[in-house]
Amino acid sequence: LDSFRTALVPDGRLALSTFGPEDDRFGPVFGAVAAHIPVADPTAAQPTSPARAQDGPFSSSASMTALLGEHGFGSVDHLEVDYAIEFDGPEQWIEWSWSHGARQLWELVGDAGHDAARADAIAALTAIAEPDGSLVHHWRVRYTVARR
Description:
Layout: H1 2-7, E1 13-22, H2 27-34, H3 61-70, E2 74-87, H4 90-97, H5 103-128, E3 135-147
Antiparallel strand pairs: 1-3, 2-3
Helix pairs in contact: 2-5, 4-5
């Protein structure tokens, strides 16, 4: 943030987007995949979901405003938009999960556990699917603009 502020002209704007809370219904899906991550130390805790920006200082508009203020930004405005992402079924959701940060979870599973993780994810997705087999994943995106 300090580098961004330095790069901006006085009264210049920084715009960014971050993710808000995930759809809780999909927690068991991520957990089903994470259960297949090989662990070097069997007593160590396994991750249950990908690292998420919304777990830290990006967790709320208030915490983002405070963070930006600590780095010399002011006039912070936020807009939160809820999106309903529709999928034809579990296979399409899995394909989509490889296109963003959830890919990290699949990569941690590795090739050896991929088929079993996929089967467990499909079972978890089927459990939350609509009667016609479709899935709707709700996601909130926060758009933030701050001034130097």
